[in-house]
Design a protein that fits this description.
269 residues; mainly alpha; 13 helices
């Protein structure tokens, strides 16, 4: 049995993807389409965070909460200092963080304090998503699950970032070894994926979890269908790599049950 494929090891097959689409691909997609999905969604990931959120919630009668959310979210803009390139703050600016852990701890404190002071507001619900992400990175999976669950329960179901909250739930359950719950969260994610944002990722994550549960033939079928129907998306490319790992483990890659995409939309990444 081969120990690894060209691009992905068996260890990577078992591990969560660590919010990979909160990185370069999601940021690029949102930057290109921020006018289409709305300022309050785009700024969570790609910047312009404070001013846009203030404007968003001001129109909903929550001006005070929105302004204070902007202040609470300023911690997200503070950089983490690189050990080889010391960064001196400008006059009036907060100093950079020494580590990612220190920054995440500051994010948790800032957003937790804000949410405690503004319970029941839309701004408090919005803050639950970046709070959950920081809690996840710190290893507080129960706290992350509570934050993501509040967002999925209370946020507007038409918001594209609801899919991100379900993804966060799935990752947190997976980190706790709760694979059945993780699979359920990723199934919900697949139901709410909005347009090109995170397109196909709910299905991809389901394939990962099925493989981790030992249901490798079922996983291979799901991934093969995803590869066929969405070959040019980030999810389709990841499915291709996962299939290569399964094949290296001796799993027969099945023919897709879904028809190949006749005209694939422009790459969401």
């Amino acid at each position: 049995m081969a120990e690894k494929s060209e691009k992905m090891t068996k260890q990577e097959l078992r591990a969560p993807d660590a919010f990979q689409l909160y990185g370069a691909e999601a940021s690029d997609w949102l930057e290109k389409r921020r006018q289409l999905i709305g300022a309050a969604v785009a700024v969570i990931i790609v910047g312009g965070l404070i001013a846009a959120l203030v404007n968003y919630f001001s129109t909903r009668g929550e001006e005070k909460a929105s302004k204070q959310l902007g202040q609470a979210l300023q911690v997200l803009d503070r950089p983490v200092i690189a050990s080889t390139e010391p960064l001196q703050p400008q006059p009036g600016e907060e100093p950079p963080f020494k580590t990612d852990k220190e920054k995440d701890e500051a994010i948790v404190k800032s957003l937790s304090d804000f949410r405690a002071a503004h319970k029941g507001t839309e701004a408090a619900v919005t803050a639950a998503l970046p709070l959950g992400k920081a809690q996840y990175r710190l290893g507080d999976y129960d706290g992350a699950l509570a934050s993501f669950s509040e967002y999925t329960r209370d946020a507007d179901k038409k918001e594209p970032l609801v899919a991100s909250a379900y993804e966060g739930q799935g990752y947190a359950h997976e980190a706790k070894g709760q694979l059945d719950q993780a699979l359920a969260a990723f199934q919900e994610m697949a139901k709410v994926e909005s347009g090109e944002f995170l397109q196909g990722m709910g299905q991809y994550h389901q394939g990962r979890i099925l493989a981790a549960q030992g249901k490798k033939d079922e996983a291979a079928q799901m991934l093969a269908d995803l590869k066929s129907s969405q070959p040019n998306t980030a999810a389709g490319r990841l499915a291709t790599e996962r299939l290569a790992v399964l094949a290296a483990q001796g799993v027969k890659v099945p023919e897709p049950k879904t028809a190949p995409a006749a005209t694939q939309a422009q790459d969401a990444g």
